Amino acid sequence: MTTRSLTRRWDPWSDLWALQDEVNRLFETLPARGIRQGLLGTSYLPPVDVLKDKDAITVKVDLPGMKKEDLEITVLNDNLCVRGTKKLDTEVDERNIHTRERFFGSFERVIGLPDPIDPERITARFVDGVLTVVCPLRESAKPRQIAVEVK
Amino acid sequence: MSNVQKREDTAPAAADAYQAQPERWLSPRALIYANNDEVVLELEMPGVQRDKIEVTVERDELTVTGWRQAENYENVQVLHQERAPFHYKRAFVLSESVRADKISANYDNGVLRLTIPKAEDSKPRRIAIQ
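^ Those are the sequences you sent over. The predicted structure of the assembly is below.
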């Protein structure tokens, strides 16, 4: 009975903001520019940021509770695919679970990269549940300054 | 509600750097389970540094706050953004059958795990049959 009484104090606003966030995320990702759900078709879509500077395209993904060894990152035809399986840290008897809002299972997210990148030089870091993948641009895709001689 | 409000006003110094921007608070997703000896709360708070997490207990209310590091997107072109700049906050009411004074916390891979031991008299007991 202990866990039953460990209830959450209801704060309507935090719930509402969280819901709005989820809905926004859903709509943003639907036809999104080059970003789509993977072939697995899971309902879990980890939120993604895609950034570009003059040297690289950087992709950031929130993946709380993932382990580095359960993450798989692949690149094919300028599509970056992040795939993984999120597991419970410890074996928990289903009957002992009181609140389950966290997602566990497999997910896949494919991010279309807008410019050609150099797959050999991709680097990835995973810190505090945030995955950062840096995809250096291919030389041909970098902005070049061309001096034009005025005659 | 007024308690929560009050504590937001007295946020620790660690949060000062982030006060300038408009704040959005999100309730972290939780997994709560219990075993014979303890109650475990797991809260998803990705992108928060360990020293930007605060866990407080005031009477029967356990409050978890996490200030997420603001991303510096000033000199980059943002092609797509779903990771909203928010901080995390959530409060729980503890029952008398747990030892609020013995909570232990660890943060790993973006998940905060709080372990709260059960009070001796609320642990399951095996009764021997004579």
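Chain B touches chain A through 52 residues (CB under 8 Å). Chain B is about 5% helix and 45% strand.

Shout if you want it in another format.
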